[in-house]
Amino acid sequence: MTLSLARSLLVICAGLVHIVSPDRDSPLNTLIGQTFNLARLMKANSTVLLNTYLSHQGSPFSDSSFDARRLRYEGVPTAAIPFLEWRTLSHVKRVEKNYEAYTAFAEFLQLVRDDQFELNPTKVELLDMLKVTRLRIQGLLSNLTAIMSALGAPPAAVTDPLMLESVEADTFEKKVRGYVVCHTYKEWIDRTVKDFSLLAEKFPA
């Protein structure tokens, strides 16, 4: 993907964050439809974010053969779940799991952007993508809060996944952490699209 095309996508995405901001008085099916559309937009951009991140980290991250999908990092929420467990989640629990995950991602993406501002201060394309992705997550969290309130179960406070002493890391660990955050975010947004495809069927517009 060219730099100009990637930046064009960012402009479009940034505009749509504002468009899909939820109206607290909207009926539940409208809120779910708005969130489904936002999640699909975020999914489309998640691969661009991951590839752009890898391209700016140097070897081995930028190598064509790089594959570390099994890497995990403490506090980063995993999207993996057995199919039957996922399929039988209640509406409230389904949205709640998304809320918990993206609350963590909002914090981790800020950390990744801080790391990249230190490691790659001239890579404006990547820094902008990380910023816009976090803004879109904030919009998604606003939608999720409205949906949970409409379902009669407003979200409870989520435990802070990051303590100040836990963010210290050397250069390589910062690059690994950023990769895990971007890759796991992509996995989560894939799950969110599936979640809201199911919810949209239950609450058609």
Protein described:
There is one protein chain. This protein is mainly alpha-helical and 205 residues long. It has one domain (27-65, 75-202): Growth Hormone, Chain: A. Helices cover 67% and strands 0% of the residues. Helix 2 runs antiparallel to helix 5 (124-150) and helix 4 packs antiparallel against helix 6 (171-202). Residues 1-25 have low confidence and may be disordered.
List the helices and strands and how they pair.
Elements: H1 3-19, H2 28-55, H3 83-87, H4 91-119, H5 124-150, H6 171-202
Helix pairs in contact: 1-2, 1-5, 2-5, 2-6, 4-5, 4-6
Describe the structure using short key phrases.
leukemia inhibitory factor receptor binding; cytokine; 6 helices; mainly alpha; developmental protein; ciliary neurotrophic factor receptor binding; 67% helix; 205 residues; signal; single chain; Growth Hormone, Chain: A; elongated
Contiguous uncertain segments of 5+ residues? 1-25
Number of helices: 6
Counting DSSP E segments of at least 2 residues, the number of strands comes to 0
Q: What is the overall pLDDT average?
A: 88
End-to-end C-alpha gap: 35 Å
Strand content: under 5%
- Specify the CATH architecture: Up-down Bundle
Largest sheet: none
Rg is 17 Å
- Helix-strand category: mainly alpha
**CATH structural fold name:** Growth Hormone, Chain: A
Number of domains: 1
CATH class: Mainly Alpha
Order of helices and strands: HHHHHH
Question: In summary, what is this structure?
Answer:
Belongs to the IL-6 superfamily. This protein has 205 residues and is an all-alpha fold.
